[in-house]
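To: structure desk
From: M.T.
Subject: fold request, one chain
Message: Could you run this one when you get a chance? Sequence is below, nothing fancy, just the single chain.
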Amino acid sequence: MNLRTKIKRITASVSLFLIVMTPVLAQEMVSIKGSTVNMRAGPSTTAKILWELDKGYPLQVLKRQGSWLQVRDFENDRGWVARSLTQTVPHHVVKAKVTNIRQGPGTQHPIIGKAEHVELLRTRGKKSDWVQVERSGGQTGWIAKRLLWGW
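Reply: Done. Structure tokens follow.
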């Protein structure tokens, strides 16, 4: 077998691996659908309540068990929420103490507001390393992706 044939076989194998494994490696995210939802210590309505989460709060899915999802938040807190109380509407939460909201996706754009730590924002779009967000009052703008957590 010549070198060119070996390279083609390796390339085909790697491509097949990526096609098969990408869904497994992808980070599954959900957000809270109800107005306030309890994050619990276990997959049961009788399990201890750890946190109350507001509508839109983003969570990463770690595991599924029946009608429950084991999740983690941006601070790496882990718990369980009922799957029926989640949705796939993208949101972000502010990781930084305070961050600028800009008119466009880049530092050259004017600052139009400030968002504070743990503020919940609806995701409206993405461009490069920037996320277009909407605040609860309806104001939209752009924040650097590295200052946010979610999808």
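Reply (cont.): Helices lie at 3-25. Let me know if you need anything else for the meeting.
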